[in-house]
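Exercise: predict the fold of this chain.
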Amino acid sequence: MDTVIELQRQTHEEIERFERTLASVLSKPQNTLQTRLQIEHKAAQILDRITSRAVALNNLYNDEQGRNAEIAAISTPQGDGTGSTDELSEFYGRLGRIKDHHLKYPDSVVGSFELELAALVDESIAEGEEDYEEEDRKL
């Protein structure tokens, strides 16, 4: 459903969000060896996701034929067969396809990436809280 250019934009955004998440994970206090190991494992998971998204992004950029076709489709006015051209016909055609998709799948999850990112952050926060609770019980 998404176009090549939109997929590239989304991938750039995902990489940037993963980088921000990585920075927040690495900035957490590392009081114990166990906490430090957990943070390092979480950072490794995030780096793996960044790497996979970067490879996918590189593949999208290497597909010059699809990218050039997409740019040509959105930059040239399309005729309606009667000899007149409508500069917004491509836009309205895509808008119609988007509306049809949302009518067909009204309950689809929109923010699946946000859910994945929240799970990464919440999981590391929950692990850190458990460590602090265990240390408090020992004292």
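Check your answer against the key: The CA atoms of residues 74 and 90 lie 7 Å apart.
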